């Protein structure tokens, strides 16, 4: 992707996406998320995208950043991520010590949308640096340089939060959560999910899409019966892609929606039964 520049130093896997002239990434709205996001952006309020894995949060933000013509800086947060990874640090270059901005600092300076994906995973000191950015101050503290920087007028902070993943030990503090406008996401309604799967995979066989999505949705219900991870819209899109690449629907469903999520023999059997009922025998 030539509109993406990967920065490997400072923080792993943060990605800057410049708004390309091409069409916005395909995104089908589920409810009023586009209106809420636009209103929040108009007032530069920080936003929290809440919802389970693979339900469209990242795609939504890519779409919104593109339509608002803002660059998008994405940081996949992880348990070793510290505030210095976000803000920046002094690095030794030859005999010199030079300051290198982290992805959050770059976004604050350039007026980008900064997406901290699963910030709850990061070290708690990261929430300290985002607090002054989320209120009227719109400032980023650079402790190591003993100063604050003012956010660019167009800067916006967005975090994601998966309510299913939190534990008593690992959760955002209420005082952090209430600094954000929350937008709820879930797996889309069936008709919308069919259109997403068809749109993403390019599959024109409506009957097949209908059966595949119906099967995925039944499999999703097994989350209530011990499946750790629900069958996501992403997994359904993968299955449709595999079918497009020549696999039989059953084999594609197994590869995209069974193997990655469970090894439990009883659950595998239950999933296989669902896919056989909807998609026929494996070829
Ligand atoms: N409303 C939608 N419109 C278009 N595509 C969608 C939509 N929802 C989901 N998808 C498809 O599902 C895939 C996964 O969505 P996405 O990566 O946005 O999920 P996510 O909620 O950010 O997941 P995670 O929490 O795991 O990061 C997308 O790449 C896209 O193919």
TrEMBL record:
<dbReference type="InterPro" id="IPR050764">
    <property type="entry name" value="CbbQ/NirQ/NorQ/GpvN"/>
</dbReference>
<keyword id="KW-0547">Nucleotide-binding</keyword>
<keyword id="KW-0067">ATP-binding</keyword>
<feature type="domain" description="CbbQ/NirQ/NorQ C-terminal">
    <location>
        <begin position="193"/>
        <end position="277"/>
    </location>
</feature>
<dbReference type="Pfam" id="PF08406">
    <property type="entry name" value="CbbQ_C"/>
</dbReference>
<protein>
    <submittedName>
        <fullName>CbbQ/NirQ/NorQ/GpvN family protein</fullName>
    </submittedName>
</protein>
<dbReference type="InterPro" id="IPR011704">
    <property type="entry name" value="ATPase_dyneun-rel_AAA"/>
</dbReference>
<comment type="similarity">
    <text>Belongs to the CbbQ/NirQ/NorQ/GpvN family.</text>
</comment>
<dbReference type="InterPro" id="IPR013615">
    <property type="entry name" value="CbbQ_C"/>
</dbReference>
<dbReference type="Pfam" id="PF07728">
    <property type="entry name" value="AAA_5"/>
</dbReference>
<dbReference type="GO" id="GO:0016887">
    <property type="term" value="F:ATP hydrolysis activity"/>
</dbReference>
<feature type="domain" description="ATPase dynein-related AAA">
    <location>
        <begin position="46"/>
        <end position="180"/>
    </location>
</feature>
<dbReference type="InterPro" id="IPR027417">
    <property type="entry name" value="P-loop_NTPase"/>
</dbReference>
<dbReference type="GO" id="GO:0005524">
    <property type="term" value="F:ATP binding"/>
</dbReference>
């Amino acid at each position: 992707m030539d509109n993406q520049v990967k920065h490997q130093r400072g923080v792993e896997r943060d990605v800057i996406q410049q708004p390309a002239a091409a069409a916005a990434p395909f995104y089908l709205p589920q409810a009023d998320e586009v209106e809420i996001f636009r209103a929040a952006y108009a007032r530069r309020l920080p936003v929290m995208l809440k919802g389970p894995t693979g339900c469209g949060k990242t795609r939504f933000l890519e779409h919104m950043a593109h339509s608002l013509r803002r660059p998008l800086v994405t940081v996949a947060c992880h348990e070793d991520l510290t505030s210095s990874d976000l803000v920046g640090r002094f690095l030794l270059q030859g005999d010199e010590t030079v300051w290198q901005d982290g992805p959050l600092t770059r976004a604050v300076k350039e007026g980008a949308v900064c997406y901290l994906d699963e910030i709850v995973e990061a070290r708690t000191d990261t929430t300290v640096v985002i607090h002054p950015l989320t209120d009227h101050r719109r400032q980023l503290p650079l402790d190591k340089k003993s100063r604050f920087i003012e956010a660019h007028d167009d800067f916006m902070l967005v975090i994601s939060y998966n309510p299913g993943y939190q534990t008593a030990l690992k959760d955002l503090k209420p005082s952090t959560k209430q600094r954000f406008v929350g937008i709820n996401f879930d797996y889309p309604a069936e008709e919308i999910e069919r259109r997403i799967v068809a749109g993403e995979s390019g599959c024109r066989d409506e009957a097949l899409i209908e059966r595949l999505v119906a099967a995925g949705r039944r499999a999703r219900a097994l989350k209530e019966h011990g499946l750790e991870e629900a069958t996501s819209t992403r997994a359904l899109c993968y299955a449709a892609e595999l079918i497009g690449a020549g696999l039989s629907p059953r084999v594609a469903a197994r590869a995209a929606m069974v193997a990655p999520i469970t090894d439990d023999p009883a659950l595998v059997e239950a999933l296989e039964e669902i896919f056989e009922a909807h998609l026929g025998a494996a070829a």
